[in-house]
Amino acid sequence: MSDASTTKSGGFPNPLAWIGRGALALFAEIGRLSLFSGRTALSALLPPWNLTQLWKQIIAIGFYSLPVVGLSAVFIGAALALNIYTGGNRFGAEQFVPNIVVLGITRELGATITGLMLAGRVTAGIAAEIGAMKVTEQIDALKTLSANPFRYLYAPRFLAAALTLPILVLIADIIGVMGGWLVSVYALDFDSTTYLRNTIDFLTMEDVIVGLIKAVIFGMVIALMGCYQGSKSSAGATGVGRAATLSMVGAAVLVLAANYILSTFFVQIGI
Amino acid sequence: MTQPILELKGVEKSFGSNHVLRGVDIDVAPGRSLVVLGGSGSGKSVMLKNALGLMTPDAGKILFDGKDVTKDQGKAREAMRARVGMLFQSGALFDSLTVWENVAFRLLNADKLKRSDAREEAIETLKKVRLGASVADLRPAEISGGMQKRVALARAIITKPDLIFFDEPTTGLDPITADAINDLIIEQVKALGAAAVTITHDMASARKVADEIAMLFEGKIIWRGPASEIDRSGNDHVDQFVHGRADGPIQPAL
Hints:
Structural class of chain A: mainly alpha
Order of helices and strands of chain A: HHHHHHHHH
Oligomer: heterodimer
Distance between the termini of chain A: 59 Å
Domain ABC transporter (chain B): 6-243
Number of helices of chain B: 9
Helix content of chain B: 25-40%
InterPro entries (chain B): AAA+_ATPase (IPR003593), ABC_transporter-like_ATP-bd (IPR003439), ABC_transporter-like_CS (IPR017871), P-loop_NTPase (IPR027417)
Distance between the termini of chain B: 43 Å
CATH topology of chain B: Rossmann fold
Protein name (chain B): ATP-binding cassette domain-containing protein
Radius of gyration of chain B: 18 Å
Radius of gyration of chain A: 23 Å
CATH architecture of chain B: 3-Layer(aba) Sandwich
CATH superfamily of chain B: P-loop containing nucleotide triphosphate hydrolases
Pfam families (chain B): ABC_tran
Number of domains of chain A: 1
Number of strands of chain A: 0
Structural class of chain B: alpha/beta
Largest interface: A-B, 15 and 22 residues
Strand content of chain B: 15-25%
Largest sheet of chain A: none
GO molecular function (chain B): ATP binding; ATP hydrolysis activity
Helix content of chain A: over 70%
């Protein structure tokens, strides 16, 4: 059926109407996500807390992510050292490898790589689990049993991710720096003691704190995207799969966007 | 006249241009078992979700024990749900919990009972649905479909509710297991003195568990009467449904 608002007289789609519909849909989605995020954050911050669920999620999100975070960090640190050495070699600045590795890992790569790895491992897992619960009526069952899904399902995941990401990032920072040290000492003939002294002398507490603050925000983003997409999953395996994909892509993009915004903010305030 | 435990008055619900419920009027008295029949897509599940407060009707009222609960949220809604049990079509057991934790979910989370006491009560309730203590520590995925339905029934009755909803309780079960589930439903509902609302398209189940039967068609209750009258309803829609004929006023959902 032809619609005057969406077609020109010749029957071709009206591009303005198409753009308008897209914009309205985008704003509606942002509104729904904002409301969901607000309710989840409130449920996470205000008692009563479901400590059993919180502990389970800390183990699932934090502890079980250690291998993937550790492996990613060691390779990123190693590759970073190699690239800085190669680049620095062009104008005789190889000695700055430890300084730039520790700066890059603590301020940027430790948090970003951890955030991206968890966007894959955790966000998709949360979305698939909650999506499967939705399509098998388990979320309806929770409500009929007087359990609020925001308190029972979403808040523990939100809190667990926000609490464990900084710890994971701290571990990623240490392992990433060690990855750079390994390559520098065993492949690039750096002196081990000098490398470590330069690293420690150059590192400031602010650099570490910048990464940890980013980690808290990334944790919130990762959990929220998983819970949100899972909670609006449509029926069937396709619906759950789509929720997992959307959550992972959304979380990865938002982690990178949040990283840029936070980096800009920290530069602006001189940290 | 006895005050109905549940009344739906002129309940309407639409999803966009799809008008699923077009003014449903129905009630159930304490201790009575009402079965609502209807074909696939007739709105049975939507009616149930509105009655439970999982959806809010666009128009009409829902009264529970004489009180309007249509728009209730928070504590008021929880107070209603504390008196209601629900057996979902798929069982809707929580995969991450053991069988006993599923059965005792409300006791542990809403009523804050000690785990040892909750477990004891869950095992007692499992016995009522002919399941032994040996299944208590298994996960739902480790038991059969029929056993999952029994666990879901145990979860629905553990708090001794005044009203129990059954959503397609025999779907996906073989006829013998389905009959056993029907027997358990009758036995437990009678033992509790609770009212029951069952939605189904399984006529054998409907005939067995119902005191009264109603038929939902195109979003309205088009017939209601005693279960014994279902074969003499005088309604073409009911006759077609009861006899499972493709020809008649109801178009098959193809």
